[in-house]
Specification:
By secondary structure, the chain is of the alpha+beta class. The chain contains 6 helices and 11 strands. It has helices spanning 14-47, 98-110, 132-143, 157-166, 216-224, 235-251, and strands spanning 53-57, 65-68, 73-75, 83-89, 117-123, 150-154, 175-177, 180-182, 188-190, 195-201, 210-212.
Length: 258
């Protein structure tokens, strides 16, 4: 029994099917090309973006309380609203942090009239509680670390060392070896809102920018190895200039509302 005419299969036109396939293919190719161009545009924008990157954030609930050279206890969170540079030293073996400490001293002089900029130095080698204030005050005075611009402080070893590794995102957990403390002396930069910030260096040939930590020991190693910066400055001088540029950028940024 024949099917009604309206139920009879349609006759396919190969030419129409081919044309439809080519149209769909063209749409797919064009769409892919537009997406690729959009990604390339974003990549170019990102590669030229020099805003300091955010590595982490120091939160109030994971803050560090220290005893300072002025004899008072204070939380690092109290510096919220300020830009601050923080480093770590071993007062018994100062050579391990001398490069970064020298940079910190130059920053202290350069930003002496900037009320929103502070420096913090954490003493990694344990100091008996009864001797802490005198020891910190003596060290700060000898090194020209003037309070209130420059805080010098410490805490009991376990708390301090955990904070240095976990919250400052350093490469080494402080530990003692052959009578000396091993730690990361890198300068860490913190913005007004408690974010740890790192410098961003666009790549001349495009691609993702280089994220730089302020590790002056590494810069000195590059200089010793003869690595060039592409400028008339050494790696150490170039990194210090980058640090100052980053500080200036952060000082121009506002404080977030709580």
């Amino acid at each position: 029994m024949p099917l009604p005419a309206e139920y009879e299969p349609a006759v396919r036109d190969p030419k129409k099917l081919n044309r439809t396939a080519w149209i769909l293919l063209a749409i797919i190719v064009l769409g892919g090309w537009l997406i690729l161009k959009a990604y390339e545009k974003v990549a170019v924008q990102k590669s030229a973006d020099t805003r300091p990157s955010i590595a982490a954030r120091i939160l109030k609930e994971r803050d560090l309380r220290i005893i300072r050279q002025d004899g008072k206890t204070a939380d690092l969170f109290d510096l919220r609203g300020h830009v601050w540079a923080i480093n770590v030293v071993d007062t018994k073996h100062p050579k391990s942090s001398e490069l970064c400490l020298a940079v910190m001293k130059r920053l202290a002089g350069k930003y002496a009239d900037e009320p929103d900029f502070n420096l913090v130095t954490l003493v990694v080698n344990p100091i008996p509680a009864g001797e802490a204030v005198d020891s910190l005050a003596t060290y700060a005075s000898a090194e020209g670390m003037r309070f209130p611009q420059w805080w010098v402080g410490t805490n009991e070893a376990a708390t301090l060392h955990t904070f240095i590794k976990n919250e400052l995102k350093t490469n080494v957990f402080p530990h003692e070896k052959n009578g000396e403390w091993i730690f990361d002396p890198t300068i860490v930069l913190v913005d007004r809102n408690g974010h740890i910030r790192r410098a961003v260096i666009p790549q001349k040939r495009g691609g993702p920018p280089f994220i730089a930590t302020f590790d002056f020991d590494q810069a000195a190693e590059w200089d010793a190895a003869g690595k060039k910066t592409g400028t008339d400055r050494s790696n150490q001088a170039e990194l210090e200039a980058l640090l100052e540029t980053t500080i200036n950028t952060l000082l121009a940024e506002p404080t977030e509302k709580p």
